[in-house]
């Protein structure tokens, strides 16, 4: 039997809700509706306990950092909770350790600021929330920022713009890890077809 591969979404106090829940909706719809593709998706927090997100939603975690299965893809969301992480050497070292072992690292919104602070984006193409593009450049002036993209795929690093852009990025990940057809199936399943009213 083929070994299943794992996508982990990090959650933490102050995470922007849709940064985490948007990718979760896409990836859990995919992995639960198409188990034969061989992927699992889960959320994890530092200690395995629930977290209080930016707008006070409590989000549970399936695992802690210590007991989570080995990751094939890591998604680091953003939100106000990332600001302390930019100076948290323990967290930044954990991110560097993941870079050494996780084949594909992704971020949503200001999650890319954490990657920049950890030194992961040196000379790489990346994006973030439009209001944080200057901060991204301040954290690492070598980052090649894409100010218009919903997401940037730079090989083993994929970053997305703010909040809802994580949905687009996650559908891209489904296409990349399986096929465009599978991503279209998932998009139809969650009825994602943006037609803004204004």
TrEMBL record:
InterPro entries xref list: Class_I_gatase-like, DJ-1/PfpI, INH-QAR
Source organism superkingdom: Bacteria
UniProt-listed Gene3D superfamilies: 3.40.50.880
GO biological process, one term: regulation of DNA-templated transcription
Entry-linked SUPFAM superfamilies: Class I glutamine amidotransferase-like
Limits of the DJ-1/PfpI domain: 7-175
Classification via CDD domains: GATase1_PfpI_2 (cd03139)
Protein name, entry field: DJ-1/PfpI family protein
Organism name: Nocardioides agariphilus
């Amino acid at each position: 039997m083929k070994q299943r591969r794992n996508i982990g979404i990090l959650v933490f106090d102050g995470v922007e809700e849709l940064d985490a829940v948007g990718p979760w909706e896409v990836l859990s719809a995919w992995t639960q509706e198409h188990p034969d593709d061989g992927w699992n998706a889960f959320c994890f927090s530092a200690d395995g306990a629930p977290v209080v997100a930016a707008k006070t939603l409590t989000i549970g975690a399936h695992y802690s950092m210590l007991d989570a299965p080995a990751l094939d893809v890591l998604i680091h969301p953003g939100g106000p909770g990332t600001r302390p992480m930019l100076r948290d050497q323990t967290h930044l070292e954990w991110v560097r350790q993941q870079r050494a072992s996780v084949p594909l690292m992704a971020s949503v919104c200001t999650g890319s600021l954490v990657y920049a602070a950890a030194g992961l984006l040196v000379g790489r193409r990346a994006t973030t929330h439009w209001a944080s593009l200057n901060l991204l450049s301040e954290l690492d002036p070598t980052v090649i920022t894409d100010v218009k993209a919903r997401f940037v795929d730079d090989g083993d690093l994929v970053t997305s713009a703010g909040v809802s852009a994580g949905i687009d990025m996650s559908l891209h990940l489904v296409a990349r890890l399986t096929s465009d057809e599978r991503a279209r199936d998932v998009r139809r399943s969650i009825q994602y077809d943006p037609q803004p009213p204004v």
